[in-house]
Amino acid sequence: MTTDVHDDLLERFYGPDHPELGSGPLSVEPYISPTYFAREREQIFRDAWLLACHETEIPEPGDFLVKEIPIFRSSVICVRGTDRRIRAFHNVCKHRGNKVACGEGYGSTKAFFCRFHGWSYTLDGRLRGVPESDRFPGLDKRSHGLEPYTMDVWNGFVFLNAARKPAKGLREYLGTLADVLDLFPNELPCLGGRSFALPGVCPSPFQSFLFRHKRPPARNQVHVSFRNASKRGKSLGS
Ligand code: FES
Question: Which ligand 1 atom is the nearest neighbour of the CA of 96?
Answer without folding.
Answer: 1
